[in-house]
Design brief:
By secondary structure, this protein is an all-alpha fold. The chain has one domain. It is built from six helices and no strands. Helix 2 packs across helix 4 and helix 5 packs across helix 6.
């Protein structure tokens, strides 16, 4: 039960941060991505803050074998940039640029009742489903 409460609180803090930073506003996100038009650089501060937190969090995590609640800690071991990674990054970037959402803000926006978010989440889930089908066929 303690894990579920911790997960809920972390999710609540994360979702609140997404709302406060403007990441759940597709117009603001698209304005940030429009570097040759009406560029809105304010989300660069959000990105810089996320990179700084991630940098220090991974530095601490690399020295640990369990998470702060005692569970197993699984960090990626591969540093290879391969074709699936590049294709996934391109598709992620295209979806982000077209919709103005990435998964976290999309879920928060869906919970807030934004119809655009429902369309985005539907296509995101469809993409995940298609990926699973392709992965299963390539393994067998």
């Amino acid at each position: 039960m303690q894990h579920r409460i911790s997960e809920f609180l972390v999710g609540l803090i994360f979702g609140s941060g997404l709302i406060l930073s403007g990441m759940t506003d597709p117009g603001k996100v698209i304005g940030f991505l429009d570097v040759f038009g009406a560029w809105d650089p304010s989300l660069a501060l959000v990105m810089g803050g996320a990179i700084a937190v991630g940098f220090f969090a991974f530095a601490v995590a690399k020295k640990r074998t369990s998470n702060f609640l005692g569970g197993a800690l699984h960090l990626p071991s591969s540093h290879q940039i391969d074709k699936p990674l590049v294709i996934g990054a391109v598709l992620f970037g295209m979806g982000w640029g077209l919709a103005g959402f990435c998964p976290g803000p999309g879920i928060v926006s869906l919970a807030a009742g934004q119809p655009k978010a429902a369309v985005f989440i539907g296509f995101m889930l469809a993409g995940m489903f298609i990926f699973e089908i392709i992965q299963r066929r390539s393994v067998s």
